[in-house]
Amino acid sequence: MSDFTNLCRYFEKNKLLRGVTIDDYLQEVYNNAPMIRPFIRAAEEISDPYHKNFPALQVAHNQIGHAIANIASALELQRGEHAA
Fold this sequence. Notes:
By secondary structure, this protein is mainly alpha-helical. It has helices spanning about 1-15, 20-35, 55-75.
């Protein structure tokens, strides 16, 4: 998940997302990930809470939530300047 997050953020930051729908953006990331992967930082591992205490579960939950928020932010559809 972290690797995909980094890919989405790279594409968004470098204005490499093409298309008009989120599906288009996802396809763009999917199609070009092998070419872009060498340029992104190593993915941080999400903690594995399996067989651990509740605080470990909370840490993993927060890490997953943060990753999803970053993906959603990076893939947010671009709006025209008049809509901003």
